[in-house]
Amino acid sequence: MHRLIQGIHAFQQNEFRSERELFERLAKGQNPETLFITCSDSRINPALLTGTKPGELFILRNAGNIVPPFGALRGGEAATVEYAVSVLGVQDIIVCGHSACGAMGALLDLPTVEELPAVKDWLFHAETTRQIMRTNYKDLSREDQVNVAIQENVLVQIDNLRTHPAVAARIARGDIGLHAWVYKIGTGDVFAYDAAQGQFNPLGESTKPIPRGSSPATNIRAI
What we know:
By secondary structure, the protein is an alpha/beta fold. The protein folds into two domains: 1-29, no CATH class; 31-202, Carbonic anhydrase (Beta-carbonic Anhydrase, Chain A). The protein contains ten helices and six strands. The relative contact order is 0.13.
């Protein structure tokens, strides 16, 4: 805690002073262009990863970067998505998974969270991911299974986002983009899903949003 308090003082003396005009403007409201959905994992820093400043990202974080389908849970996830899309008018939604995700490891081995009932119940919202893995990737090594589950789970959450009325309405108008990313912690690489190829490729300047009604992944591999 002492380190955090020191950090706050350093922020007030340095970053805040140098960006005073920005923070004064943000005090009057926000206008982020992107909803960034990622895991609660302490190793993920969305602003650092994307090089963004305060006010540029609207961030939703939870274990496993999960977005329950609309109506499955009247919780913070649905409210955050609805507010970002309908009130703030974000132009893009990114679901960003990450390597070595503990939530995905637990999803593939549910007995490990038997004594964590809240965690187990939460992972139920990623049951589609678990079934995809059980059906299609049984022959992979444990490490590769987790790696692929991380990717498949991001795509499942993209599908879940489409069930939210506010998102569906914007998709129908063609004025919002959905993006599936995976961040590799140990290398700093970010991979984006290419619907045309059915796989995750290194993120590039020309990476496009996932098209409306695109087919499920067909060529997912360990990255």
